[in-house]
């Protein structure tokens, strides 16, 4: 379904390791904080700054990434494979906690910064696909991966209440 090859140095140099499953702590496979480039085959992968899929994140779609970027170079500590079917995505966002208040069904990348829902969302339900939820309309700031069938009743749990400004569908992998 998908694999990632991680490299010790930029431009696919140095030692490498192939992974086909999630790794909550790269120390467990002797690769903590030493990833500088990656190759992705198949479904997207999410790289996290801290163990157990926490901290800053970076999404790698299928292809060759000769440098993971200054912000994440030698800082990747956990990796997660996106296994969802990424076709026909759908998420419902809600104005208040516990899926209360106004709601909106979203099926495409959406910049809330230009509409009624900017900085007003407090919960969501993902019907299909996987989504990158971002604090700022340019995709920066705090980001969160929302996965198929996830129901998050309160953004307070992730310190994200009333901060959502941008939703991006994770990259499509066409078989």
TrEMBL record:
Keywords: Repeat. The keyword Cell membrane does not apply. The keyword Transcription does not apply. Residues 2-42, 43-83 form the Beta/gamma crystallin 'Greek key' domain. Pfam families: Crystall (PF00030). Gene3D superfamilies: Crystallins. Coiled coil: none annotated. PROSITE patterns: CRYSTALLIN_BETA_GAMMA (PS50915). GO terms for molecular function: structural constituent of eye lens. One of its GO terms (biological process) is lens development in camera-type eye. SUPFAM superfamilies: gamma-Crystallin-like. Transmembrane segments: none annotated. PANTHER family: BETA/GAMMA CRYSTALLIN, BETA_GAMMA CRYSTALLIN 'GREEK KEY' DOMAIN-CONTAINING PROTEIN. Belongs to the beta/gamma-crystallin family. This is Beta/gamma crystallin 'Greek key' domain-containing protein.
């Amino acid at each position: 379904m998908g694999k990632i090859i991680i490299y010790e140095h930029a431009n696919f140099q140095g030692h490498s390791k192939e992974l086909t499953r999630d790794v909550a702590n790269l120390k467990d496979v002797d690769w903590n904080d030493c990833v500088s480039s990656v190759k992705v085959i198949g479904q997207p992968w999410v790289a996290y700054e801290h163990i157990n899929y926490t901290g800053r994140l970076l999404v790698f779609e299928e292809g060759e990434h000769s440098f993971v970027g200054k912000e994440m170079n030698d800082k990747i500590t956990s990796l997660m494979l996106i296994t969802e079917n990424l076709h026909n995505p759908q998420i419902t966002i809600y104005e208040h906690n516990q899926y209360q208040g106004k709601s909106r069904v979203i099926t495409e990348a959406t910049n809330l910064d230009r509409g009624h829902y900017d900085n007003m969302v407090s919960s969501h339900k993902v019907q299909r696909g996987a989504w990158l939820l971002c604090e700022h309309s340019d995709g920066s700031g705090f980001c969160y991966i929302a996965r198929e069938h996830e129901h998050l009743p309160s953004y307070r749990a992730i310190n994200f209440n009333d901060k959502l400004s941008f939703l991006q569908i994770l990259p499509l992998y066409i078989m």
